[in-house]
Amino acid sequence: MIEGTDYRLTPLLSEDEIQEKIKKIGRNLSDRFKNEVPIFIGVLNGSFIFMADLLRTMTINCEMDFIKLNSYAGDKSSGTIRLLKDISADITGRHVVVVEDIVDSGLTLRFLKERLAGAMPRSIIFVSLLFKPDIAKLDFPIDIVGFEIPPDFVVGYGLDYDQKFRHLPAIYRFEGL
């Protein structure tokens, strides 16, 4: 329990489990782009911690940028994607690695795929720390998934409930009291 809150947090993934998985993902991407300089695009706000830790594991040169989208109100998807901040880099002809904190409905990923493909990148790789296969509706694969999780609402390690709980070093199931 976090002081001053009325919520129950049940551990789902520990800090150590997360960091071990990120190292593995970093090795995979470093090997995949050994002779390239990919650009990593983090989806704000949720991916910022994951992306920072992931970039520190890279053994190749890379660049980064961010895009900010919104599709949530509280703990529910609104069903609509709003673009709040676009990327500033030119990704034409570039290898793009999209870094997501979580894929649940798949709505955000579908939006990103269409938007980024319009800029004619050389390739687009999707990396998500968490994936909820029971509720995702995607017609394309996520290239790299850290953990498949149940359809519970989760917080911590960049994931939030109304902008709270992002600072937690592990991932928790979130329940109101």
Task: Give a summary of the structure in a few sentences.
With 177 residues, this protein is of the alpha/beta class. It has helices at 15-32, 48-57, 107-117; strands at residues 7-13, 39-44, 63-73, 76-85, 95-103, 123-131, 144-148, 154-155, 171-176.
Core attributes:
three-stranded antiparallel beta sheet, 177 residues, Rossmann fold
Explain this structure.
The chain has 177 residues and is an alpha/beta fold. The chain has a single domain (37-165), classed as 3-Layer(aba) Sandwich (Rossmann fold). The chain is built from 3 helices and 9 strands; from the N terminus they run βαβαβββαββββ. The chain has helices at residues 15-32, 48-57, 107-117, and strands at 7-13, 39-44, 63-73, 76-85, 95-103, 123-131, 144-148, 154-155, 171-176. The strands form 2 sheets. The chain has a 6-stranded mixed sheet, sandwiched between helices. Strands 1-9-8 form a 3-stranded antiparallel sheet. Strand 5, helix 3 (107-117) and strand 6 form a beta-alpha-beta unit. Helix 1 crosses helix 2 (48-57). The longest helix is centred in the N-terminal third of the chain and has 18 residues, at 15-32. The N and C termini lie close together (11 Å). 27% of the residues are buried. The mean pLDDT is 92.
